[in-house]
């Protein structure tokens, strides 16, 4: 036997929305009326039931993550707490929910009242099993919210359809369907297709081009004597290592420092190795002659040549100096003879000058005697020779002799002195010439000695009178031979370097081919061959998107089908109830029946349920759209009829219905009809009705005896919040 | 039956693929988690990821095509 449905027993509220101070309310088993003007906290108390059971409020949009608007502004504890006591037969259940300000999560506790067994592990699951109703269905089956009715009364079809969808529980489907935007996918597909086409076109062009390049580089490799088997990376690595090894050996042989090793493991290393090899080859070529001694030897040969020229020049100069001296000596005699001659001539000049002086003295003596005789004419003897002679005779004789011999002798002596002096001058000149030539000879000898000395540093110590020039020549010949030998060695090295250089060029050719070959393979592999049905990753993504689009279309179709089927089924189940409630509640004088149909409606590509609410006259068979013929109050009756009928079709464990202000726009007759209908629901269903409508309250009081119903009045102040007062 | 189950059952009855049913599950879970915006984001993200992968692949194709050196025409000599 099924357990009785859950009914509300008691609610305790603190700090929730309009309620601040703790309030409590005991529900009547049949009906509880909350009667108060607007703004006194009716909806807060009804909302407390909803929040306690589900932790959220359907018609209060969250304004932030924590949704602190739930908590009363003046709550001292800064928390909302609602405790709801539910009764099912003899069993009592307590549901308590708390939430602190600033916190996102609520704290839910559920326990069985008898024995206080608490469900700590998963209270939400326990609660769901207890009430057997989802949050969305709660609004369809239990809680007639003002907003639910208002939606059905609005003329705009879209809003009305949404309200019906909510009532039939398909608004989620509708929202999911609206959120599925195919255009995002179709746009992406178009864009990717365009990009793919452009990329594949480019790739196709690249394949052709690189194929040409590959052929060209293959021919180049073949021309460089590569066999097809050698066109591999390992062959390239081997070649590169061989080149580097040869160059290392050459560096060692030429005394060059060893180059840093190049690690060749991939194609890209080939170029590095080739560049390094070229650098080493250049260095060896530059430093080769220097390191092999060729430069030094050539330099020595040049210096020897110079030395030999200088030696020849010095020898020639010395010979010419000797020859000039010999020639001079043969002409004027040697230095000794010249000295002797100069001495003789000097002596002779001295003798002649002495003779000339004596002659002069004699002349002066004669002159003095003459002068004396002239002054002493009486003298009869010569004052010189004491010869007896008269003065006058003696004067005549002296004058005659003196005049005749003196002139001739003096002239002769002067002549002889003049000639001797001239001869002496010539002898002196010859002596100076000999001295000059000797000086030249000494200088030439000195130079020759210096050259000899320099040559002996090349040839080694030479014995005096050795054949320096011969030795130098022999040395030069030896050096020339050495140069020839060095040049031959250098030629061999150059040949080897040339071979290595060729190998480096071959390495580069191989690298070019291998690189092009790799690129060719990469490009060819990347380019999809549509003819052979190959697909690339882009096409895979396109296919995935198309598959997603297809799946979404299927999902959308299913959602639409389910939405429509659920609405149709709900209406089928509730049709009789709706008609019955409509007849009782609306009591229209002409349109005595109502019919709601569901149709598909495509809105911006999305299929949606569209509801047509038609009223009809059974006797005349006339039918019309309800919204165009019925008043707002009558439409309210339609909404109440739909809600109450649907509430009865859903299966769940809750035995109460909550109605928030159900009498909007109703006149007295309709209110009376509503009160009667509500009365008929008791005792099967527990009613909780909040209203500001005193007329409805009066009518309800008429229908419900005090035994069946409890009435509470509400008052509200800002600090304390809502206060509850039992009226009846 | 809840709406998730109803749609899933409908999909199965129409012999929809496992992918389609999994997609529906994803859509519903996203909706439960964050409403219509979450569904939109889920689909946008799927498309974005797909587009991203495709773009990457296209870039690779272009890059591979770009490795082939193109011969450029010499500019005409200015007179």
Can you describe this structure?
The complex is a heterodimer of chains A (728) and B (79). Chain A is α/β, with parallel strands linked by helices and 728 residues long. In chain A, 62% of the residues lie in helices and 13% in strands. Chain A is built from 18 helices and 15 strands. Chain A has helices at 42-54, 123-131, 135-141, 146-153, 157-168, 171-179, 182-223, 233-254, 267-292, 294-332, 335-375, 391-459, 468-526, 537-586, 626-629, 632-649, 668-681, 694-703; strands at 7-14, 23-26, 31-35, 79-88, 91-100, 107-112, 117-118, 143-144, 593-603, 606-616, 623-625, 656-660, 686-691, 709-717, 721-726. In chain A, strand 4 and strand 5 (91-100) form a beta hairpin. In chain A, helix 4 crosses helix 16, helix 8 runs parallel beside helix 9 and helix 12 packs parallel to helix 13. The longest helix of chain A has 69 residues, at 391-459. Chain B is mostly helical. In chain B, 76% of the residues lie in helices and 0% in strands. Chain B has 2 helices and no strands. Chain B is elongated, with a radius of gyration of 24 Å. At the A-B interface, helix 6, helix 7, helix 13 and helix 14 of A face helix 1 and helix 2 of B.
Biggest interface between chains? A-B, 53 and 42 residues
Poorly predicted runs of 5 or more residues of chain A? none
- Computed structural class of chain A: alpha/beta
* Beta-strand segment tally of chain B: 0
Q: How would you characterize the largest beta sheet of chain A?
A: 6 strands, antiparallel
What is the residue-mean pLDDT of chain B, rounded to a whole number?
83
Number of helices of chain A: 18
**Number of E strands of chain A:** 15
Query: Helix and strand succession of chain B?
Result: HH
Strand ordering within the main sheet of chain A: 2-1-4-5-6-7
User: What's the quaternary structure here?
Assistant: heterodimer
Strand content of chain B: under 5%
Task: Let me know the average pLDDT of chain A.
Answer: 85
What percent of the residues of chain B sit in helical stretches (DSSP H or I)?
Answer: over 70%
Radius of gyration of chain A: 73 Å
Distance between the termini of chain A: 36 Å
Broad structural category of chain B: mainly alpha
Shape of chain A: rod-shaped
Shape descriptor of chain B reads elongated
Q: How many strands, what sense, and barrel or not for the largest sheet of chain B?
A: none
SS strand fraction of chain A:
5-15%
